[in-house]
Design a protein that fits this description.
The complex is a heterodimer of chains A (295) and B (405). By secondary structure, chain A is mainly α. Chain A has helices at 2-9, 12-20, 24-53, 72-79, 81-115, 118-129, 136-147, 152-157, 169-194, 197-205, 210-239, 242-247, 253-263, 265-288; strands at residues 57-58, 65-66. In chain B, strands 1, 2, 3, 4, 7, 13, 14 and 15 form an eight-stranded mixed β-sheet that branches. With 405 residues, chain B is α/β, with parallel strands linked by helices. The chains are: A mainly alpha (295), B alpha/beta (405). The interface between A and B is large, with 56 and 61 residues.
């Protein structure tokens, strides 16, 4: 009788706490429910919808979606040469941008991590992050002005008899390399910071030439970080459509998807699966190269 | 000191992770497309025409071409009707069709290459012209056309018409061109390689077809929107040859204005809106002279626009008021002069600031418009003889992707 009365008196909150007590899985489950729902429904859910849509087609005249499954979009992607060419052009540009950024980012990151003093280092981190505060659209439009016929680039190149890249693939490469550079610098910087100075000192003590130290000690230890950075530069280039639209007259995967969205959404969905497949393959390779070991 | 070594690295990782999350959110927001749209049912159109004009609903949501919905004539409309105008500018007809499919808009200023598709998709409703008093005095040659009338019912109110212009930078392009060959003949166009500005829309193939109609009579092209396979392939081939010379395929008026202003574009197809905007900035641009009706010698593609009402319109009364207002003599004169097109309203010619405006724009000369080929949705059925061997819009869209390479 007495114990019953005590239970009745307990507040709802206490009862809830009592319910969770001794059930650790339920505790963590309810804690993560909201973020998990966000991840599963918004990201994975939309991917599933995308996958299903890719099998639909549209009515030729009205452009209305016909919700019947068919391979038509995928057949078109594979059989029409222009789409293969667009995919190849995009992947090639993404690879070029990645290599360019790695080559530029490594020395900067090395200086930041190993050479610069504390104040200089802080200033450099801010300097690298600063461009990310500006809208990326504004930066592309600024590049449009730089690359224009009477723009700064042609003005600067004219005295030495050269001409800018105009509106070709090279412009896209240039703009993308600029846009995504910070995403390469930061992981490499973080990776280099992790290498203890003592290892470098030991290599020197053992009589290694600085170049040998770089090749045998620094590069292998920081390589996973370079691969991590390359994931950003590669996949961001692969999916972007604004830069190609605004600085070139060439079609990329992103621009083709954008163009298809207005009159053939199912085809756009099918095309959107291409960069996803490419990135998954790339992540597989990156994993092999150890990019996720310290994440 | 040593102990703190790890923390900046960790901070950097957090920053990177945050950025990735941010990019993903951005990508997520951009990716949310709707897949509405119904099929089925014979014919097209949707909903019933309005029988009686009621009280305004307080607002109206429009989709328009740049320069069609401007404060100068929108403010008086809002004051008089009590309908607040919310306007969304679209860059291409495809975009207009897609926006209409969201069902969030009451009406659209559709060109002839969108009207039939909107009708076939049941997105637009027939218009009861008895409720639009100003319709009576619309130029007769704009009423009852294939692009605004379906199954005998009017599906919109004519807004105005014009030709696509050939525009050039007079410092770079000499002598002044009088033919589309300056952008389409590979030999002539090579001179401006990398600086040609072409509209990024399958309708541009009709420009190639119009050029061939004049320069390759053997192909027997009679209408640039009704092409059999051989004619179509020839036009596509011509546009492919143009590709290496194209500096930019523009898809918004602002993009092209900027391209001409910064000197990257030297010659290409444009609309009156961009031409007058650049003129207003004192840029050295020129277009085919008014004395020739703004037309190069081959004639030109053009448009005849129609205000259509959505079959899902939430503010039908306000939309009817807008349709009547935009073709009222004063407002139609204002929009025609602002944009640089021929008005649809006969009486607008008495209201223009420039008393010669209508004669300069050939508004009252049906014969003139025979050389302007209004944008139209290409259909498999050719109008001549009921043959079905014409290339349809899907073929045009696919070819346009191949042309751009």
């Amino acid at each position: 009788m007495a114990t019953d009365a005590v239970i009745v008196k307990r507040s709802a909150g206490r009862r809830l706490a009592g319910f969770f007590n001794g059930r650790p899985r339920l505790q963590i489950g309810s804690l993560l429910a909201a973020p998990m729902a966000w991840l599963v429904i918004l990201y994975l859910g939309s991917l599933v919808v995308l996958l299903i849509t890719a099998f639909w087609t549209v009515d030729p005249l009205s452009g209305s979606v016909i919700k019947e499954l068919s391979w038509q979009n995928f057949e078109e992607l594979v059989n029409v040469p222009v789409y293969r060419e667009i995919v190849w052009r995009t992947v090639r540009t993404a690879a070029l941008v990645t290599i360019t950024d790695a080559l530029i980012a490594f020395p900067i990151a090395f200086y930041m991590a190993k050479v610069a003093g504390r104040k200089t280092k802080a200033a450099l981190v801010v300097a690298v992050l600063m461009p990310l505060w500006a809208s990326y659209l504004v930066k592309i439009i600024a590049w449009r002005a730089i690359l224009a016929e009477h723009g700064v680039l042609n003005w600067a190149l004219e005295p030495i008899g050269l001409h800018g890249p105009g509106t070709g693939v090279a412009s896209v490469w240039l703009v993308m390399s600029y846009l995504w550079l910070p995403y390469m610098i930061l992981p490499i910087f973080a990776g280099l910071e992790r290498i203890p100075d003592s290892l470098i000192a030991a290599s020197e003590d053992l009589g290694a030439h600085p170049f040998t130290t770089f090749r045998k000690v620094i590069l292998p230890l920081s390589f996973p970080a370079v691969v991590a950075g390359s994931i950003f530069t590669f996949s961001l280039t692969l999916g972007d459509y604004l830069a190609p639209k605004l600085v070139s007259n060439e079609q990329f995967i992103g621009t083709s998807i954008f163009d298809s969205i207005t009159n053939n959404q199912p085809f756009a969905a099918a095309f959107a699966l291409v960069p996803i497949v490419v990135v998954i393959a790339y992540l597989g390779v990156a994993r092999k190269l150890g990019a996720f070991e310290h994440v | 000191m040593r102990g703190q070594k790890g923390s900046p690295a960790r901070t950097a990782w957090f920053v990177v992770a945050g950025l990735v999350a941010f990019m993903l959110v951005l990508a997520g927001c951009g990716g949310g497309g709707s897949t509405t749209g119904t099929t089925g049912g014979e014919g097209g159109g949707g909903g019933e025409e309005l029988q009686k004009l009621g009280k305004g609903e307080g607002e109206v949501n429009l989709i328009s071409w740049a320069g069609y919905v401007e404060p100068e004539w929108v403010k008086p409309f809002e004051a008089k009707s009590g309908c607040k105008v919310n306007d969304k500018v679209a860059g291409t007809s495809d975009e207009m069709v897609k926006l209409m499919e969201t069902g969030q808009y009451d009406g659209v200023s559709a060109s002839g290459n969108a009207t039939a598709r909107l009708w076939a998709a049941h997105e637009v409703a027939p218009v009861n012209v008895a409720l639009i008093p100003n319709y009576k005095t619309v130029f007769p040659d704009l009423k009852g056309q294939v692009y605004n009338t379906f199954e005998g019912k009017p599906y919109g109110i004519p807004h105005g018409r014009g030709a696509n212009l050939l525009m050039w930078n007079k410092n770079d392009v000499k002598p002044p061109p009088s033919s589309w060959e300056v952008t389409l003949d590979p030999k002539v166009a090579a001179k401006y390689s990398g600086h040609i500005s072409q509209y990024d829309d399958p309708m541009s193939i009709a420009e190639g077809a119009l050029y061939l109609m004049n320069h390759e009579p053997k192909l027997g092209i009679e209408d640039p929107y009704e092409l059999n396979e051989e004619q179509f392939d020839a036009a596509v081939e011509l546009m492919k040859e143009q590709k290496p010379n194209v500096g930019e395929y523009w898809s918004s008026a602002e993009q092209q204005i900027e391209g001409f202003a910064n000197g990257s574009n030297q010659v290409g197809t444009t609309w009156q809106y961009q031409y007058f905007a650049l003129k207003g900035e004192n840029e050295p641009v020129e277009a085919s002279p008014a004395s020739q009706g703004f037309l190069p010698k081959e004639g030109a593609t053009g448009w005849s626009d129609t205000w259509m009402i959505s079959s899902h319109a939430k503010h039908p009364n306000c939309m009817y008021m807008w349709m009547n207002y935009i073709i009222s003599p004063k407002a139609n004169a204002q929009v025609a002069e602002y944009f640089g097109e021929a008005p649809a309203q006969e009486k607008a010619c008495e209201e223009t600031e420039n008393p010669n405006f209508c004669s300069e724009y050939h508004a009252e000369e049906p014969a003139f418009w025979k050389r302007v080929y209004y944008w139209r949705t290409p259909l498999a059925e050719c109008s001549e003889g009921g043959e079905t061997d014409c290339m349809d819009y899907n073929d045009w869209v696919r070819a346009w992707t191949e042309i751009k390479g």
